[in-house]
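Please complete every field before forwarding. Incomplete forms are returned to the sender.

SECTION A: IDENTIFIERS
Entry label: holo-989
Bound molecule: 2-acetamido-2-deoxy-beta-D-glucopyranose
Molecule representation: SMILES string

SECTION B: INPUTS
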Amino acid sequence: MAKFCIVLLFIVTQGLAAPYKSSNGCGYDSCNLGKPDKLNVHIVAHTHDDVGWLKTVDQYYYGSRSEICKRGVQYILDSVVAALMENPDRRFIYVEMGFFWRWWNQQSDEMRNIVKQLVNEGRLEFISGGWSMHDEATTHYNSIIDQHSLGAEFLHDTFGECARPKIGWQIDPFGHSREVASLFAQMGFDGLFFGRIDYQDRLFRTPEKKLEMIWKGSANLDRQSWLFTGVLPHGYSAPLSFCYDIMCSDPPIMDDKNLHDYNVPERVEAFIRAAHIQSLAYATNHIIMTMGADFQGQNVNENFKNLDKLIHYVNLEQVNGSNVNIFYSTPSCYLYALNKAKKEWITKTDDFFPYASIPFAYWTGYFTSRPALKRYERYANNILQVTRQLNGFSQMNLRNSIFYLSEAMGIAQHHDAVSGTEKQHVANDYAQRLSDGIDQSMEVINAAYAKLLSKEGQTQLNVPQFLCPYTNISECLPIEGQAKFTLTLWNPTIHSVTIYPRVPVTQEYVIRDPIGNIVPAEYLPISITTKNIPGRTSSAQYQYLFQASLPALGYNTYYFEARANANKIKRRRVKTTFNEACILENEHLSIEFDGQGHLKHIVNLDKNLMVSFTAQGFYWYASFPGDPTTPELPASGAYVFRPFVSEAVPVSLSGSINCTKTDTVQKASIVFNDWVSQEFSLFRGATSVELEWTVGPIPIHDNIGKEIIIRYNTNINSGSKYYTDANGREVLERIRDHRPTWPYLVDERISGNYYPINSRIWIRDNDHQLTILTDRSEGGGSMYDGSIEIMVHRRILHDDSMGVGEALNETAYGTGLVVSGKHILLVERPEDSARLHRVGAQQLFMHPLATYSLPNTPSYANYSNIYRQSWSALSDTMPLNVHLLTFDQLTHKQYLVRVEHYFELNEDEIYSQSVTMDLQTLFKSIGTIANMTELVLNANLPLSQLHRLDWMTKDQESSHMNIFQSYSSNGTTLTLYPMQIRTFQITIN
Ligand SMILES: *[C@@H]1O[C@H](CO)[C@@H](O)[C@H](O)[C@H]1NC(C)=O
Ligand SMILES: *[C@@H]1O[C@H](CO)[C@@H](O)[C@H](O)[C@H]1NC(C)=O
Ligand SMILES: [Zn+2]
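SECTION C: PREDICTED COMPLEX
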C-alpha cells in the first residue's frame, strides 16, 4: 500500500544462557544502545516491497510495466549493497524473501560474498524473513507457518545464524491477528512491529504511551505465546519532510555555506522537534524512526547521503544542549534497547480487528474480496500438503519438485494477494502461479503413486494420475466417455474419514470399492444451476454420489467400469418433490423447509434441540459509490466495506424448492433468482448439514455495486455476542458495537462489526449453538441478536481510494464472475460443539485429494491383481485431538514433522485434555526413528538453542520460561497440550 509506511523491529535473546554472541558483529551484542541521558532515535533505513499489488511480483522485481509505476526491486537491492559498502555505520533491513531469493539467484560469487559479509557484520539485517509479508485476516495458519519456514530455510542455508530473523515486521497488513502473534512467538521471535492500527485505538493509546505492549498471543499456550508488540508512530514512512528517496520531494540537507539555500539549522531544528513530538507517545528514552516506504531505495545513495548528514548535524547540536541522539539502527536493536530499559509493559489479550484507517473506512471488505482466489489458495494448500505426504511416504525424495508450489503459496500469502486487494492482472498471476505449482506437484504425486499403487513383486507401472479441478462445477472432461477409469482418494488426516465424492459422467458405470464390492451409488441429475455456470463445457448430465470411507493417512481406489447394457440397470430409488414443504432427515438431524424454500428448523434429534430460522437466505448491501462532495466518506472497494445504507435487501422474498431423497443423501435445492441459489445436503449418518451456495453474475445494470451476504436468523438467545476464529485456530469472542480495550464510538454500524472468518463463526445461548464452517476466508458477524451473516461475494463499481486504483468488478467468460462455495451448519449443545467444529474444520481444509487415472487393464480382476487399491501409513488409531500438520521429506533419511493439538482448553470434556502420542507410529511404513530434534515453529533453530528476551508486565508477570520444563519428551513419545504445535526434525535408520 502506497500511502503508508512503516518501520521495523527486532529482537533480543537472553535467558538461561548468555545472549547469542557473534564474533562477526551481527546480533544484539552489536547494537548501538545510545546514551542513557539522551532521547535516542533509532534510524531504520528500509524498503517495503509488495510481492505483487499494482504489478505482478516479477514485474516489480524487474521494474517492467513502468507505466503503472516506475519501481524495480532488483535495482533497490543493487543500490543497497553499494551504499552499505560505502559507509560501515549504515544499516539496512530487508524483509521479503520472495524478492531477495530472485535477486540472489542472479548474483555472482563475488557479490554473494560481499552480501555475506554485510550480513555477518549486522549491516544488512533480515527482518521477519517470510517469503512475503503475509496478510493476517485471510490467511490460514498452515500457510503462515509454511511461508515463514520457506524464507527461514533459505536464509539459514544461505547465511547461517546471523540471518535468523528475530522479530516480526508486519508494517502494512490491514489489521492484526492474535494468532499471528502467537505463531511468531513460537518461531522464537522476540517482538513484532506493525504500522496500521484503528484510528480510534491509536487516539486512545497515544497520550497514555500505550503503543508498546506485551501481547498475550494465545488463550491456551501461556507465556510461550507472549510477544512484545510495538505500533509504529505513523505507518512506516519517514517523518514529515525527512524523506530523502528519489520518489520524494523533501529538501536535501544543503550544508555548504558557500552555496545558496544552506538549510542545516532549520533541518536540524525541525528534526529535533519531530523527535520530541514522537517521544511523547512512547514510554522510554528510545524511539524508532522508519526511513523508507513502498519500493523506496532504487537510488538509496540519495537516502543514505542525506541521512549521514542528518545524523552528523543533529548530534552536533548536543554540544549546544540538545538531548537528541540519533544513529543508524535496526528494529531488532530498537527492541533490544527497550528490553534493556527494564520497564513494565501493559498487556493485550484481544486482537487488532477490524481496522479503520479514518472514520467510516473499515477495512473489512477484503475479508471477502475475490472469493474464488481465496478458495483456490486454500485448495492449493490442500494439494501441497498431500504432495508432501505422498513424497514422504513413498520416499521419493522429490522435494525440489514441490518447491514451485511452496514458492507460489509463499507469494499468495502476501497482504495484497490472498487478501484480494491487487489489480486484476496481478490476481490472475497469483492464480497462474498456483496452477503451475500444482502441475509440478502432479509429477511428485504420480511418482509416489507409481510406487504405492504397485503391489509387491510387481514392477512399477505408471498409470498417470490427473486432477479434475472442475468437479466443483460437475465437470471432468478426461473421464467423459471412458469405458473405465479409477478414482483414488488420499486422506491427509491421521483419522479415517467418510466423504461423499461426486463424479460427473456421461454414461452409467459400475463402481467397485477396494475389495471388489459394488458400491451402492446414487445417479443424480446435475442441477440446472450448475449446468448454467459460465465456462462449463462438460456434456455430463448426471453425477454419481457415493459414500467413501477412507483409511487414515492413506488412500482407497474406486474402479469405474461402463455398464454393458444400460437398459438392464435397476435404478436406485429417488424421490423428488417440487415446490412443496419438505423435511430432510437422517438419524441425527432433521431440516425443515416450507414450500417457498424458506429454511424453518434444524433439529438435532440426538439432543432433542431445535433451532428455528426466519428469512434465512441471501441479501445484498448496496456499495457506497463515493461522493466527490464528501471525499472524507470512502467508497466501498477492494479493502473497504461501506454499505450505502445499513440495511441489506433480500435478493428475493421466496424461491422455488425441489427436494430429492435417496438412501445416501437428501437434498433441498432452492433457487431464489437467476443469479442466487443454494442447495442443502444431508448425508446418511452425518451430524452436520452442508449448504452449497452459488452466486453470480451479480447484476450491475442498475449501476449499483453489490455485496452479497448469507444471513442465518435464528431464535438463539445470543444477545450481542458472537465468536470468530483467528487464522483457522483459536476462537475470539466478539461483541457487537464494542471493543475490549477502548470506549468505541460507532461510526459504521455494519462494517464496524465485521471480523475475519477463516474457518468458523458461531452464536450460542445456554442450550444451543449454531456453528457455521466456511471453506475459505470470508467476512461476517452478527448484526442482530440470534443472527449470523457471512459475506460471500462482492462486485463493486468504484475504487475505495486506498491505492489499488481499480474497481473490484470480477468477470469471467464475458459476464460477472459466478462463485460457489460451502457452509457447513452444526446445531449442538455448546458443550458438545467443539468436537464437531474442530474435526469438521480440519476435514474441510485437509480434504481427501481426488485423482483419476485411465488404466489400460482389460478388466477389474486384472486391475486388482496388479494394483494395491487401499493403503494406510498407520496401523494404530491416533488420538482424535491430534493433527499431522506437516510431513515433509527433507533428504533421503530426514523428515520435518509438525504435530498439533487442535482443541482449545475447556471446550471439550475429553478432547481438551493433553494427549500423548508416539511419533514412531507415523513412520511405521518408512523406518525406525534414529534421532529426533525439536525445532522452533519455523524450523530454523533447535528449540534447545532458543533464548528469547524476557519481559515484565505491569502485573509483575515475567515472560521468562524454562523451555525444557514445558517441552519434556521421552524417546519418540511426546505430550501435546491444547493448541500446542511441536516441530521435529527426524532422522530414520
Ligand atoms: C425443480 O424441478 C423442476 C422439474 O424438474 C425444474 O424445472 C426446476 O428447475 C427445479 N427447480 C430447482 C429449484 O431445482
Ligand atoms: C464491470 O465489468 C463489466 C463487464 O466487463 C463492464 O462492462 C463494466 O464497465 C465494468 N465496470 C467497472 C466500473 O469497472
Ligand atoms: Zn504492502
